[in-house]
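Human:
I keep going back and forth on a fold encoding question. Comparing notes only helps if you start from a blank page. Show me how you would write down a chain together with its backbone fold. Write it directly below this note and I will take it from there.

Assistant:
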Amino acid sequence: MGLANQSTGVGVLRDVSDVNLDLRDELVIALAGNPNVGKSTVFNSLTGLRQHTGNWPGKTVTNAQGRYVHKDRSFILVDIPGTYSLMSSSVEEEIARDFICFDKPDATVMVVDATCLERNLNLVIQTLEITKNVVVCVNLMDEATRKKIRINLDELSKHLGVPVIGTNARSNKGLKDLMEYVYQVTSKQIETNPIKITYNGIIEETVQLVEPYVHQLVKGRINSRWVSLKLIDGEITIIDSINRYLGFDMLDDEKLAYQLAAAREYLKENGIGPEQIRDIIISDIIHLAEEISKDVLTVQNTEYNHIDRRIDRILTSSTFGIPIMLGLLGVVFWLTIAGANYPSEMLAAILFWGEERLTEIFMWLGMPAWLHGVLVLGIYRTLAWVVSVMLPPMAIFFPLFTLLEELGYLPRIAFNLDSFFKKACAHGKQALTMCMGFGCNAAGVIGCRIIDSPRERLIATITNNFVPCNGRFPTLIVISTIFIGGTFGGTFQTVFAALTLVGLVLLGIFMTLLVSRILSKTILKGLPSSFALELPPYRKPQVGRIIVRSIFDRTLFVLGRAAAVAAPAGLVIWLMSNITIGGMSLLNHGADFLQPFAGLLGLDGYIIMAFILGLPANEIVVPIIIMSYMSSGSLLELDSLEALRELLACHGWTWLTAVCVMLFSLMHFPCGTTLWTIRKETQSWKWTLVSFLVPTIAGIIVCFAVAQLARLMGLV
């Protein structure tokens, strides 16, 4: 697996015009490291806005590339997947190993966590076996200082035989020095001398039986000692990657096959079987990392992480973990509901004032009424509604969600839910992808890439829509505020509306688990795979970075995508409500046709039509309902929630209608953006259709059961 210019970022960055440099001076630098060491923060701080994202060729794992200029050189930084090892037990490890080893970056920056140096050194040592052009970036030095951990960086550099620099990427400290070392290594001003690992005596003797001939075969193109170890180990994915890189199958060589057989026989004679070789290699690497750490680390406070452990005893306990999680979720929802109303009204006023000015311009120019209807009452008004309804709650929800992420709480949520997903025969990482779905289901589907098993990745993809995304929250917020919170009124209106949302989220999680188990026992049979979940240390969040990241990387990105699909939706809605057949609009014809079916679900035909027409963007479901009831021919804005309540009540809405609308909003087909994302991720129209049908069928069944039960009991 190789990376072309386009995929490494060189092709993309050819058009950057801020620096005029010859492409021969652009050097590719790999950024590698364990998860949660701040690798992406290093990357973002160095590259800023000069970034490009994509997928690795043939893989659904995201890569990111960016440009950094130092002195007379332009560097292409490639943020490779975070991994704990290069022994390819996952897709991420395979990608990281193959890029470092076979794509020959000009240098590799190994980012390690200063508070967990010993564990991080395992990956550094494995990398030094492959390449000598390495610079070690000891990040999070501020946290190490806070925890009274001191690292002798000069001594660490002597041990490893490569440059070592301490950094605090979140405040940009040490990053210029880091790139100066990278510059010197790539320009050969520093000659590195990586540490040589001495394995168990029997392993070393076995390597000597094979390496001389391997050295002849590879002809200096790759580290022959490392290749010999992997051939003896016999891990098939690594050997396949080596063969692809060399362009021939090494195992077809009769002399090498004979030597490998002799080597394995020698190991067997000394009591080392095939299953023990890797354990010995890993143990020796761990032992070396321990020895180096003892020499360079000084820990003045051996209980430096006791506060984190005490907090975890509460946040991850079987007694308090789930209630605290639900409580935090309720607070986030309450802040979102309470804080979004006023800015949403202001934004709507501004945008609809703009509509009035556009109307005046159209009238002044003498434009035909149909053109004004299509462009202003159709497309512009739909966009205005989507922006005014979506932007304020997203601008509150995403920073709060990012805050929990920065604090290190999201992995604790995954830990708390892991046992539930295991019982559902699903992957524990699905808890993380489910959390991503609260912001945007399309983002949650993309997040399913972190799940290695194709079967479990499909389960997570199909069920991600059971958690309400940001696009569905406006509908849920409005209806819960009117029909649930409105029952209590006053100060408690937003509180009970928030509690209703928490209940809906719990139902969504329950449906996720239930459907995941059904899928794993039927069309996607299999056993859940295990995974290692690291609980990172709690960190002091940087408010400025949180705001920038949540606004630009999430809020505006999701808003732009929603606007892109809402514009054509506005056109379709206007056409359906203004084209008449037999004195009735197409919208009314559709509603009449769907009325018998909708009645069984506790809904009406206009509500079902609103969900169908809202396929491009869930945010426009309520506006379509309003437009349909008022027969206006275009989307309308009402003056207040009370006005909306009266409109809905006049058209037969009861508490049962409101509950069924919320349930169907929670469980119905994904939006157009999410469906398109599913198609791209799965490369299958079949699984896209399944992802469409599964939540829709679940929503129909649940709404039917609730409606019929309420009617049977005489509650309506």
Remarks:
- The domain at 201-299 is CATH 1.10.287 (Helix Hairpins).
- The mean pLDDT is 82.
